[in-house]
Amino acid sequence: MSTTNKSAAPHVGGRRSGSQATVTAQHTTSQESAAQTLARSLGKRQTVALGLVCLSAAAVLSAVLLWANQRRHDARQAVGSLTLDDIPFDGQRAYEYLKQLCAIGPRPSGSPGMAAQQKFLEEHFRRLGFTVEYQRFRVHHPLDGSEVAMANMIFRWHPERKQRILLCAHYDTLPFPLLDKDNPKGRFVGANDNASGVAVLMELARTIPQLTSRYGFDLVMLDGEEFVFHPDGRYFIGSEYFARQYAKQKEYQYRWGILLDMVGDKDLQLYQEGNSLRWKETRPLVEEIWSVAARLGVKEFIPQKKYDINDDHVMLYNLGGIPCINIIDFDYPPWHTQADTPEQCSPLSLAKVGWVVQRWLQSLP
Ligand SMILES: [Zn+2]
To answer: 270: phi > 0 → left, psi -120 to 50 → alpha, else beta; which?
Structure first.
């Protein structure tokens, strides 16, 4: 992606326990006045003593309840410490895919690495029973004007269905690590950006045949997301082409779309993306995905907005009218540097993202 408008998001943690404490205190005060009123009206010392005993018991009970509440709160937090064994999405296998993609080497548009990647993906999806389609187009090289062949890859499940779900990720890598301070002309393999998104789609594809949904599913690899040699270059060429082609046809319709970009960071933090949250057609899906994550205890999906990110989903939405959200972790220091390697990613992060998307797919009618 290119530009972002960063804004600080205030943290709102701790409010829940604060309000619980207040409620408990009020409760104790009202018990106290009830006991005093009772003692006055009866006028007996024994009753006052009894009242004080009751009062102490109530105070102890309140403290115990408060402590128990806190324990339950901590237990909920601990659910966030998920391991691969807790997650029925194979993050380890997704991570193997990510490493295989990076082992190909740099995979920018039109390169031998891209061709090798296409062969690898075609075999994978064909083996799983998807139809394979190359949406080919040509662009001029931004440096010398020569022709560059690009292709979005479209893998369809139930291609005959008119109502469809789009799951997509860009699969080209930045030609050079433009933000690398030491070597901006060095080698860039794009582990998190965006072998991670591709790897999650590859593993998700294994589970799609088990879905009982009435929707068809298109898993799409977008080319030319960042065939740029300078940060101000032309981005999103593949999603632009895909969106325009989609807008021309009336055969089928995307009900929802999800774009996965940089979802493998071992320090995963998925804030809600600003555009996806603002568009009225996509906001319900953002809310749904983050609430699925909350139900599963995947606390890395943080239900707050942090960045507005210009990414492929903006083209899909603006030019294609596709209600597509972006799931992206933009807090990634090795972004567009040589250090974006598999070591910066983790099987567990891939598992968490894959599981949340998988659960959402399972909930579709
Ligand atoms: Zn990138």
So the answer is: beta
Domain residue ranges in the chain: 15-78, 84-363
CA distances 75 to 54, 68, 101, Å, are 31, 10, 38
Q: What pLDDT shows up at residue 41?
A: 46
For residue 71, give every residue at least 6 positions away whose Cβ sits within 8 Å of its Cβ, in sequence order, or none: none
Tell me: the pLDDT tens digits for 21-34?
333 333 333 444 44
CA of 215 to the centre of ligand 1 (A): 30
Rounded-to-integer distance, Cα 286 and Cα 23, Å: 33
Superfamily of domain 84-363: Zn peptidases (3.40.630.10)
How many CA atoms does the CB half-sphere of 54 hold within 13 Å?
Answer: 16
Q: How far is the CA of 255 from the centre of ligand 1 (A)?
A: 27
Q: What pTM, to 2 d.p., does this model score?
A: 0.80
Tell me the residues surrounding ligand 1 (ion) with CB < 5 Å.
Answer: 193, 226
What stretch of H or E contains 238?
helix 237-248
